Amino acid sequence: MAFEEQLVNGRYRLLGHLGRGAMSLVWRARDERLDRVVAVKQFLHEPGAGAEVCERAIREARLASRLRHPHAVAVYDVFEDAGSMYLVMEYVPARSLTELLVERGPLPRCDVVRLGRQLGAALAAAHGDWLLHRDVTPNNVLVSDDGTARITDFGVSRALGEHPAADEGVVVGTLPYLAPEVARGGEAGLPSDVYSLGATLYTALEGTPPFGTSDDPITLLRRITENQLTPPVHDGPLTAVLMRMLERDPAARPTMQEAVDLLAAVGRPAPPGPPRRSRLRRAAVTGAAACLTSISVAAGLTLADRPATTAAAPVEHPPTTVTADRTVRSTTTAAVPVPAHPSDGPARHPTAAEPSEPAEPLVAGGCTARYEVTNSWPGGAQAQVTVHNDRPTRLTGWTVTWVLPGGAGIRDLWNGTLTQRGSAVTVTDAGWNALVEPAGSATFGLNQELTAGAPAVPVLSCRTS
């Protein structure tokens, strides 16, 4: 049966369906007074619920109209016609993020970062006006063909300090993206939106929500409240930011604006312009990554490969310790070889026939570490370290140590905890990635600052606990 156009409120001509939700229909329409295309949301209701629907429509319009931002869908008007409530919104020729993920699968990291910065900026503006969205999900994100993202559907939003009676005793939001405090029946706050945006971006990057999906809402609620998060497949600075946004404790999460700033910093050391030819020699050059061209140098490393005994030259700064979700800027002094004993004379580097003595591990053997340079640019490089479990049992913690070559310093580190004294580097697990199954692996990454020369592959020691 062909669709027949109809005019509502004497002004908006409905041209066709755009979508349908549990409580509404969305139409593409023309505003004949202003001669522009708009989206019109028609609220559905059961007999006898008209007053409640009217209140909900007016409330959504009132709250959403407070937010004017290029990455939020604007609300123009609200009215009643023939017993139905309508909300007039900006028309955005776009698909929901859910539809995009179904079509393309997980998105490249650079696309996820761009989405996060855009959506986070709109939500930060809302938070600046003390407005909570309360239902940030891929369904409520519209993505245009040019990659522009907009947050929409403020149907369950509310202003801080406002407590509608209808919300009492009701968990508001979409289960896979609920913050733990909301899933436990607590009140939503600004950190809850941060969590839901983190869960949405996690889904875009990993292809599944942080706590998976389930047809049983009780099972899903238990996973969320018990923080049974699915370990992320991807590593890197973006994952570190998302894990901060997904902290179980609301107080430990960044604010929305801080999250935007963290996302903006992801990948910042990468050089602009066309890919540069690697200055590394004897390196295997890999293919281009989805978002930037990277040059990889792989080196398998074992516990038997140890450097000569070294001691760091004096530095004026105390040891630097950095957790997984923060970065460090430091300048280190090159390590100076010293004799193992004062009477031994000049330090000697071990040869293949004369291996150096291994450092005392927390547990002898058990893991190996592999250092790989994944990108380089003038004055810096990015690397990934893979920790492999060589034991027949699960690792419950790991530590990787090495000595920085002269002229090198660590600028950023993610997915691990860094302690640095001079040129001596120690990285331990970040807690959430401490457990490594037999034959499994965990990774962490870092950005280096180089004052001279090309990035070098250090010799690593791996210890278990």
UniProtKB/TrEMBL annotation:
Gene Ontology process terms (BP): carbohydrate metabolic process
Keywords of this entry: ATP-binding, Kinase, Nucleotide-binding, Serine/threonine-protein kinase, Transferase
Protein name (record): non-specific serine/threonine protein kinase
- Superkingdom as given in the UniProt entry: Bacteria
What InterPro entries does the database record attribute to this sequence? CBD2, CBM2/CBM3_carb-bd_dom_sf, CBM2_carb-bd_dom_sf, Kinase-like_dom_sf, Prot_kinase_dom, Protein_kinase_ATP_BS, Tyr_kinase_AS
| Amino-acid positions noted as binding ATP in the UniProt annotation, renumbered to this chain | K41
* EC identifiers of the protein: 2.7.11.1
Task: From the UniProt entry, list the residue stretches annotated as the region Disordered.
Answer: 334-362
Stretches of Low complexity bias are at: 352-361
One Pfam family this sequence matches: Pkinase
User: Which molecular-function annotations from GO does this UniProt entry contain?
Assistant: ATP binding; hydrolase activity, hydrolyzing O-glycosyl compounds; polysaccharide binding; protein serine/threonine kinase activity
Checking PROSITE patterns in the record gives:
CBM2 (PS51173), PROTEIN_KINASE_ATP (PS00107), PROTEIN_KINASE_DOM (PS50011), PROTEIN_KINASE_TYR (PS00109)
According to the entry, every stretch annotated as the CBM2 domain falls at: 360-465
List the lineage, top down: Bacteria, Bacillati, Actinomycetota, Actinomycetes, Pseudonocardiales
Q: Which enzyme type, at the first EC level?
A: transferase
Where is the Protein kinase domain positioned along the sequence?
12-266
